[in-house]
Amino acid sequence: MAGYKPRVISLTKRPGDSFGFYLRVERGVDGHLIRCLEMGGPAELAGMKDGDRILRVNGTFVDGLPHSEVVDMVKNSGVSVTFHTLEEAPYAQAKAKGVNLSDPQSAPVANGGPEQALYPKLCYLVKLSSGYGFSIRSVIGEQGLFMTEVVPGGVADRAGVSVNDRLLEINGENVEGSTHDQVVDTIKLAGGSIMFLLVDEETDRHYQNKHTKIGARLATAKYLPHKPRVIDMTKGPDGYGFLLKEMTQIGHITKDIDRGSPAERAGLKEMDRLVAVDGKEVDSFSHEQVVDKIKQSGNQCRLLVVDKDTDQMYKQGNVSPMVFLEGMNLDDSNSPPSYREALNLPARVQPSTPVQSRKEELKPKLCKMEKASTGYGFHLNGIMGVSGHYIKEVVKSGAADRAGLEEDDIVVEVNGVNAEQSSHEEVVEMIRSGGGSLEMLVANQSVYDQLRAQGVTITRLLLGGTSYAQVHTADTREEEERREARPETPAEPARERTISSSSDSFDESF
């Protein structure tokens, strides 16, 4: 099972507590999935990721067993359980290739968690008047060109370039056989921006030992400043609410997005270029083939799209945005994906309010709290590949609840820093780095969507003279009840316009 080695993860909990994840099966998706990891829970701390597949429970191979049997095996384990897990992308590849996943090999485990995966990296640099902030080094008699004199805080440093990185490609062209002068000339002729494919020393040795040629297809896109977006939609009575147009030399472009439609709520924008439908790249598809592919998705569809800036960046590097989609579950920087979409929860229908009242409500809220012995009392959910972090499972009378945080609030700032484009792990780190206090600027789904639709940037300035800040402390454990993981209750479906099979699912709390 080379290339598909599972990780061994052992979890221990206190009696009455949970392991901090949901075990789930989803219609049309193979395997027993890890979903809704509890922030700071045993599963997350041990290195589990949303979308991981459980292959073994306490040594017993369970891939293919009925969901109920696997649930019982976990529950009957008591306060300790050992899993063999495989990340989502390798699992899908193994299934597609017919790999025997019952082979009991396992990946190395370091300090209770899996070792960091090694990937080359794509780095995009936009030149300033002071330059890119790096130099190229080569050694006579040795093959390779290396990065050196990377200026701290400079363009290259902020783009992910490190000292001693080996340069493999410039704008999609391999330069491993080029001379020092040729590479310098190529960089000078590139203009005001450039895309590098780089590999650090450890990763370079790793691939050399495997005799594997390194290319952009293997790279992580986590350092790139512009991100493709994953659009998860549930079809409404009027369809998805957008039109698709094929434009020569550009591709399949989204147009005429209906306000309030599933497409708009999922984040689809005018003139986005469609890259993939349900994980299948459609660049070579005709308009009719793309439409058919969307229709075949039924009531739910996942699109990978890029805006103009993102599209230009990827084209400059001569690399497909699919590298982002394929690497979402492989990059250690990427966080648990699609909690909201994975649970197939449409946006809640907001009760109608008078126009005047609705205008007054178009403000975010600033919630300030102090950590209790059991935490802040909320769960942070994120959607892989999509900007946005959501508040879930707010503990009644906990610090978060008393500070004003509510279910499905969208996080805008954490301790004064905008978090809308940050990864899940980055936001978690922002929260943890605050020590015992936390200040969050949030907005409920309706307010957030309306402000974004109006092109309004959500900041504290929108609070005006009204103070929404609250400080709450908890002196006793009773004041901050510990949350037990529990199955989500589906929200009422919102009215959504065009191309919907319901996805059966089963959630279990551990």
Describe the fold and architecture.
The protein has 15 helices and 27 strands. It is α+β, with helices and mostly antiparallel strands. Strands 15, 16, 17, 18, 19 and 20 form a six-stranded antiparallel beta sheet that branches. The longest helix is centred in the middle third of the chain and has 10 residues, at 180-189. It is globular and about 65 Å long. The two termini are 30 Å apart.
In short:
By secondary structure, the protein is an alpha+beta fold. Strand 10 (135-138) and strand 11 form a beta hairpin.
Task: Please give a handful of descriptors for the protein shown.
510 residues, alpha+beta, six-stranded antiparallel beta sheet, four-stranded antiparallel beta sheet, 15 helices, disordered C terminus
